[in-house]
Amino acid sequence: MGWIDRARYGLVVVILIANGTVLRAQAPAPPAPMAPATSAEQVDAPLVSAPKAVVASPFPKVDQKNFTAESPTVAVVNDFLAEVWGANENRIWSVAGIQKTAAPGVSKVIVLLADKTKAGSVSSYSFYVTPDGKHAIADTLIDFGPKPFAERRKTLQARADGPGEGAKSNELLIVEFGDLLNVKSKETHATAETLLKEFPEARLVYETLPPEGRPYSMRAAVEGLCVRKVKGDAGFFTYAQSVYDKQDALTQATVESAFGAAATAAGADPAAVAACADTQAAKDEVKASMALAAGVDIQQAPVLVVNGHVLPQSVPYETVKTIAAFQAKQDGIAVQVQPTLSNLK
Fold it and tell me: What percent of the chain lies above the pLDDT cut of 90?
């Protein structure tokens, strides 16, 4: 993972920096179109009009000499960082420089980062923004801008048409890219189902993403969608859970019978499902799901995406839930996070 991915996950609240002062504020709205700012305007422009609280800044005074590029502006960088880091209430940062590079139109952004709970924790990170202002490069290419997840969200709202459950509206859309024979996908599916219970406003859509060169994973995916054709979305999820439940005992000798048993559990005829799975149309449906994943830069399962925001893996569930709730709030969707022992204060 790039540094942005490693650093962006935690709890909730947006922290912005203006004129060397740490400001706690509500997540900012996308900035209104404006003419390119001078370096002085980039540094001195206030980011919020009425901060809720002011605390001492651990960062040195901003040096205007470090701002040699007209784009992106400090405001845009802060909006971007608020989107990817804003779920952590202890993370604070200061945009220390936006510089021209030898590559035409490519700007280098330097950010100082600290943790409010750790004295002397200031560190420096940098990334590069492409000339079109839509991508940033750290260890890898990522989406950039005041709303970096908006394009992926729009694509998934329009094209994610796999088996679904939950709310009818896809305004708050959880897309799960999964492989039925992958142990981590089993765990991710359990997380997705729990999120769906906690956020009744959400709709969950499952998109199959079997890895290339894994014929049994492909077969499981195809048969699952064939079950859906005759037993609907509920039938698919019953089939999927049955396959997940049998993962530990699967061998090459038992995998075909396990698929048949899963089809039976969903109320479908195993022979008819197997015949469907041999058709090119059924295989093409899985390939379309794989193409959708590639189109939104999802390379392998499992992955959970909430309104375009790819959620972290291998972190506590409470962190995942907090980020999901934060993203919903960023998109203007009111959700009620149920209190638990881990988030009660």
Answer: 66
Helix (H) or strand (E) holding 287: helix 280-295
| 86 lies in the same domain as 182 | no
Tell me, yes or no, whether 130 and 169 share the same domain: no
Q: Cα separation of 34 and 224, whole Å?
A: 50
Same domain, 101 and 171: no
Residue 156 to residue 160: CA distance in whole angstroms? 5
Last residue of one domain, picked from the residues 129, 146, 163: 146
For residue 241, being part of any structural domain is answered with: yes
- Give me the pLDDT at residue 339, please: 60
CATH number at residue 244: 3.40.30.10
pLDDT tops 90 at residue 328: yes
Instruction: Pull the structure tokens for residue 130.
Output: 């492409």
Q: Read off the pLDDT of residues 205-234 as tens digits, 9 standing for 90 and up.
A: 999 999 988 899 999 999 999 999 999 999
| Packing angle of the helix pair 183-198, 215-245 (nearest 10 deg) | 50
* Residue 221 belongs to some domain of the structure: yes
- Is residue 304 located within the same domain as residue 158? yes
Q: Which amino acid is at 259?
A: F
- Verify that 127 and 244 share a domain, yes or no: no
Q: What is the DSSP string of 201-241?
A: T-EEEEEE-PPTT-HHHHHHHHHHHHHHHHHHHHHHHHHHH
Residue 29's nearest CA partner among 47, 53, 11, 46 is 47
Q: pLDDT tens digits, residue range 80-129?
A: 999 999 999 889 999 999 999 988 899 999 999 998 888 777 888 899 99
User: Which structural domain, as residue segments, surrounds residue 140?
Assistant: 3-146
The residue type at 104: P
